[in-house]
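Entry for the shared binder. Reason: the reviewer on the internal report wants the predicted structure included alongside the sequence.
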Amino acid sequence: MFGKKRAAEAEADGQEQRPAPFEFVASVQTDVGCVREINEDSGRLVRPSDPAQLAQRGTLVIVADGMGGHSAGEVASQMAVETVARLYYETGGEPRLALRHAVEEANRRIHSAAAADASKHGMGTTCTALALCGDGAFAAHVGDSRLYMVRAGQLYQLSEDHSAVMEMVKLGIITKEQARTHEDKNVILRALGTSPEVEVSVVEPFGVRAGDQYLLCSDGLYDLVTDDEIASVLNESGDIHATGERLIALAKERGGHDNITVGIIRIVPEGTGEAGGENLRATREVEAI
C-alpha cells in the first residue's frame, strides 16, 4: 500500500528520541464545492473540556463523506460523526478499541436508519477518525476518505482507500497515477451503513512529534489536488485555518466537482503560544464535551 513502508520508517525515526511536550492547533472545514447543491460531507473536531477526559481519551477529528439519493448522504455522514464522537468518549476500555467500537456502532445505526426509511435506502458514508491521546495517535477508517501525515516535510498516506481502483493498484493492474483518472475511481468497496456489519481498518498507535501535521480529507480534495501539492501547502508556514482554505480553494479552482472537507492538526512545542482555543475552528462544527 502506498506510503506504508515510508510511514513506518518515519515512525522508527521518531522513536530515536523521546518527543518533547507539545500542544496542537487544529481546524476542520467543509465546503459544498462548485457543482453540488447539497454538502454531503461532515467534519467534526472534539476536544473535551474536562481535563481528566482529555487526558484519558484525547482529541478526536472525524471526516465523513456521505452518499445516497436526495439528502440521504448528508444524513449518513452527520450520523457517522455524531455517533463516533459520542461513543468514543462514552465507551470504556482501551481508547483504540473504543474508537473501533464507535465506528462499528455508527455503521449499525446508519444501516438501521436506512432500512426504516425508504427515502434513505442505500445511504452510506465513509468515515476516517484520528485520535490524539497523550504522546501518541491512532485511527479508524472505512471508505476512501484519507488520513495523511507530514513529518520532516515528507507526506505519508496512513490510510488505505477501500476502493476498486486501489485494489487494481495493489494487484499491479494500474498505477497509482492511472487510478486518479480511472472511470471507477469513485467506486468504494466499504462504507458505513450499506450492510449490517463492516470491517473497520485501524491505524495502530504511533508516536507523534512536535512539527508533525495530520490531514484528514474527503476525495473532493485529493481527486483534484495531488499529494505533492498537498505536501507543499501543508509545509507553508502560517495560520492553520488559512492552510485549509488554501487546499479547498485549489480544489475549487480545478472545478470543485465534489464536496470538499479538510481537517488539519499541527503539533507544536508546548509553551510556544501557537496553540489556543481560537484555532479550534470549523465551517460546520467544533464540539467540546
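Summary line for the report: The longest strand covers residues 22-31.
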